[in-house]
Amino acid sequence: MIKAADLPDTIAVFPLPGALLLPRARLPLHIFEPRYLQMLEDALKTPERLIGMVQPCARKQDEALHAIGCAGRVTQFSETEDGRYMVTLSGVSRFRIRAEVNGFTPYRRCQVNWAGFDRDLGRCEADTEFERARFMVLLERFLTSQNLSTDWDTLQEAEDELLINSLSMLLDFPPEDKQALLEAPCLATRRETLTTLIEFALCGGSDEETLQ
């Protein structure tokens, strides 16, 4: 397990709209662009093997990034015959971007601050006010409305954090809403945000609108 003292001041960042990584969760990635292949190669040379996932700011035209992202450790990777990589990032901790680093790498790098996200490096969070049965009814309505199916037995058995974080990552919400889920200070707040997004979608919310 990575400790706070092991977290570097500068990391590579991967701006990928809609791709959400949360602490203690896993994100599969398909890497094929030359600059990101270089990013992966460089990350694997470091002890921490960290890559920062961050959302681009949708409403800005200057390639600006959201201030908060989440770093993941490369825990699995395999190369295809044509040189692409299938990678799994395991979420370690969120971070706040201090400044972008101008350098010679083809990918983007940022100076980051890990302060304020201490709980990310701790144990799984619990949500003592989680009304699971009520939430599952709402989730079933949502998935049905989206013509989606799932393994309900697996969802029922999942711990609170795994359930909420997995749904936050997998469900198809706009990038700005994904950012709201990322920035939720605790699991209970993330669950409340997720519930609001699902209820909004069931009420016919447009893809053009995002949670404020």
Would you kindly provide a written description of the structure presented here, covering whatever features stand out?
The chain is globular, with a radius of gyration of 18 Å. With 212 residues, the chain is of the alpha+beta class. It contains six helices and six strands; from the N terminus they run ββαββββααααα. Mean pLDDT is 90; it is low at 206-212. The protein has a five-stranded mixed barrel. Helix content is 32%, strand content 25%. Helix 2 packs parallel to helix 6 (187-202), helix 4 packs across helix 6 (187-202) and helix 5 packs antiparallel against helix 6 (187-202).
Key words describing this protein structure:
212 residues, alpha+beta, 5-stranded mixed β-barrel, 6 helices, 32% helix, 25% strand, globular, disordered C terminus
Produce a short descriptive summary.
The protein is an alpha+beta fold and 212 residues long. 32% of the residues lie in helices and 25% in strands.
